[in-house]
Write the structure tokens for this entry.
Amino acid sequence: MSHFDKVVDRRGTNCFKWDTVEDGVYSFTIADSDYEVPKEVKAALLKRVEHGIFGYTIVPDSYYEAVINWCKRRYGFSIKQDDIIIMNKVLESIALLINLYTKEGDKIVINPPVYPPFFSLTEGNNRELALNHLINDNEYYSLDFEDLENKFKEGAKMYILCNPHNPVGKIYSKAEIEKIVKLCNKYDVFLVSDEIHSDLIIYGHKFTSVGKYFDLHDKMAICISPSKTFNIAGLKIANLVIKNEEIKANVRKHLDCYKIGGASLLSLLACEVAYNECEYWVVEQQKHLYKNYELARNYLNKEVPHLKFASPESTYLLWINLQYLNKTSAQIIEDLKKYKLAVNSGCDYCDNYDGYIRFNLACPESVLKEGLKRLVKYLKDQEKNKTNRL
Ligand SMILES: Cc1ncc(COP(=O)(O)O)c(C=O)c1O
């Protein structure tokens, strides 16, 4: 049996996905995976834990080399050690950039439906949301460049790009990325590219980082992380990549003022080992995710032929349109409790998407099959209820 199909019980480990739902419920919620980290990462952590002393630590040059090489090999851009700022979380990085490069009342552009903290970070910091909605053509999503440029013309100060896109799984093409960077440059917009999902590419698709275009725009920062890729989000680590000297210095100065940023010795170790030794694992994981996606697609198409969902090009997220049920996402989530199934509510990603759900595919095949079975049972029961009412 493949590493990714082995069922590991996560209950009783303070696991957000499985310890916040009742016994017997199958959970496909928060964006982490249900399989173990690569054996090399686990062995390195065990060895370090065995040492038994976890005092103050330094970041070895070998850590930076691992990140530099990963960026070069996987994303095709070159950076030096000084361009990497180690953080605890991607969201911490975005929050800091919002505070440093926009003022209260400034407009920040995001692309709904999108990862909910992009809304709360903007509004929570008293900035104004400028919503550049993705165009939804029958669950194929694309960027509305005309509206984006208008938002920039109207004076937006920052653009938080989600590439690959959570929840719709879109990857922007090389031409689109180049166009985005050029537009940001033209209108002097600070570009924050959240590329946390960039190693989870569905077979046949190709990821382009904004890092390929560092020379076109100074006001740019990229958030990368091994946390989704290697399932180590609980260890907390992210790397903020910035090339511009002034911006780097300013970010470092503020991190120092607040004494924030950095990562723990275990997360640094996990990241270094994963980047140096576990690229093979990323490739295997991609195959597993593709298999799971194909399984879900074929099963849902067969059992509920009229069901619509986005075809992810990346991530492990399936974005499903249940608006035909004429129920809110909250009602659907509540209904699904009776079917012992937990998923994310679509309206958290944008009000217009009330009635959608997000389903996490990063689990063993047997778990996925059971989850899909429960979802299909629910959907078929809804049809039956409707017929009975007529
Ligand atoms: C697009 C995106 N950015 C950031 C995060 C969170 O990253 P972190 O835990 O490093 O803040 C997630 C987690 O789901 C995400 O999907």
Summary: The pocket of pyridoxal-5'-phosphate is lined by residues 31, 89-91, 115, 162, 166, 194, 196, 225, 227, 233, 238 (CB under 6 Å). The mean pLDDT is 97. Residues 41-277 form a domain with the Aspartate Aminotransferase; domain 2 fold (CATH 3.40.640.10).
